[in-house]
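Morning, I've got a small favour to ask if you have a moment. I'm working through a protein record and want to make sense of it properly. The fold is given in discrete form, as structure tokens running alongside the sequence. Can you walk me through what the tokens say about the fold? Thanks so much in advance, here it is:
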Amino acid sequence: MATAAATLSSAQLARRRETISTLRRLGLPIAFAAAVLLFWELGTRWAQIPEVLLPPPSAVLDRLINAFPLLMKHAWPTIWQSLAGFTIATVMGITLASALSASKLIRETLYPNVVFFQLIPKIALAPLFVVWFGLGPEARLSFSVFVSFFPVVIATLAGLDNVERDLLRLCRALDASSWQTFVSVRLPHAVPYIFSGMKIASTFAIIGVIVGEFITSRMGLGYLILFASAQAETALILAAICVLCVFGLCFYGLVAIAEKWTIRVFGDAPR
């Protein structure tokens, strides 16, 4: 009886600690953000900073509410192009990393070029995509893929390569084919690495689309930011940036949820 009570108390204590830990992880960032917003609001009013230079958060919120239909109208092209660019970059990155890991010849031929392109300042290449693909969504989508492609390749390749040698020797001893070894050992081991690259790529995909919208678009949040800048509507600029932040957080959160689900499916993949 005493043992059961002690076990129950231990379980309750563990749940309480987990609840406190969760509240701490959520509460501290929210409290810090609230403190920054409060300081921003009071500081701009106390210093009487013109709204053209830096509007208070209340003015940004008011503009966000009043211009919400306009913001959603421009958010849709940015969202779908970012999602499409991220998806294409993920598929291409995992495929290329798998080929690099499977073939020494392909690795020696392509990997140095992959690293070389990674070192190029990608924003400097954005005008070339306009020349190659024109002023339509193709230029923005292709540039988004180009920007977000490399993190997936590098992270996936690291995961596929960093498999314990004992596991690989065991696969050879069991006469497992290269494909069986890839599916049963290499890929499950690489899952956390792949999602690490995807988390970075989710941010880069949005950046790629926004840069493209700065250059070519007549729609999208990037275009709206440029338009508001030309009209000196700083509150609208910040409202558009808030929408981008919310979308980015949701995007990142979906990738994190997919990571937890995938790791649960694969079972013993390292976390």
Summary: The first helix runs from residue 2 to 46. The mean pLDDT is 82.
